[in-house]
Amino acid sequence: MTDDTVPPAEDAAPQPAAAAPAACPRCAKPLDLCVCEGITPIETRLEVLVLQHPQEQDVELGSARLLTLGLARGRLKVGLSWPNLAKALGREADPRRWAVLYMGSGDDAVATQPGTLRLVDRKGQTVEDPTVLADLEGIILLDGSWSQAKALWWRNAWLLKLRRLIVHPDFVSAYGNLRREPRRESVSTLEAGAFALAKLEGDDTLVERLRAPFIALVARYRAVRGNRPPKAAANRPAGEGSRKPDWRGRKRRPR
């Protein structure tokens, strides 16, 4: 029950604005949610670049920064557009040797078996040539709600030159009921990247190792904040809620 009583004007002293909670300079999480102590960068053959929409900087439960902190060759870039892959990476690179985790359509998701990663062409058809994946230098993930990820896709035309990967993880996201998802198989950016790397590197332990800090974050959030989902970030447009891109390719409907 709330108390709507308004005190007399002479008794209502101005209240100072609440100070923002201190944040960890490494992971940008509030200090009571920081799990940096458990993060040791993992060496991988492939590079990982996460392009994060400026309005998706989810301070409390966002996973993108934890992913790149957990990788010796991981990098996070926040922005809306870059002229080309080289500008996004900060060095010269051949787009044909890079892949993007592609959202595609619902049909693409259905065609991808659980526990697998699939390389597709622009028409969504499976590419069977194994030498393509063996020649990859790195992968790109788009971090944001469905509309934000779609904006990143269309504002960066050079992404069309990259290989396209569709992943279908065979585990349930550590988010649990803290994030509303359209399908049980939907996972976080970190989990999608970990799964893709594990398949591409031939090292299934990468999933568990990269997910560990994220699982710790969710557990700490529940212990400190409870089981209620975090409020939408102040810089996120109204109406987007906490929807995230579905890395298996299904478009998410507004709720």
Automatic annotation (TrEMBL):
Organism domain of life:
Bacteria
Gene Ontology MF annotations: tRNA-uridine aminocarboxypropyltransferase activity
Q: What PANTHER family does its record include?
A: TRNA-URIDINE AMINOCARBOXYPROPYLTRANSFERASE 2
**The UniProt record lists the keyword NAD:** no
**Domain DTW intervals:** 20-226
Lineage, top ranks: Bacteria, Pseudomonadati, Pseudomonadota, Alphaproteobacteria, Rhodospirillales
Region ranges (Disordered): 1-20, 228-255
The UniProt entry, under SMART domains, shows: DTW (SM01144)
Instruction: Give yes or no: UniProt keyword S-adenosyl-L-methionine.
Output: yes
Pfam families (alphabetical) = DTW
- Name listed for the protein in its UniProt record: tRNA-uridine aminocarboxypropyltransferase
Which stretches are tagged as biased composition: Low complexity?
A: 7-20, 228-239
Which keywords appear in this protein's UniProt record, sorted alphabetically?
A: S-adenosyl-L-methionine, Transferase, tRNA processing
Where is the chain membrane-spanning?
none
The EC number of this protein is 2.5.1.25
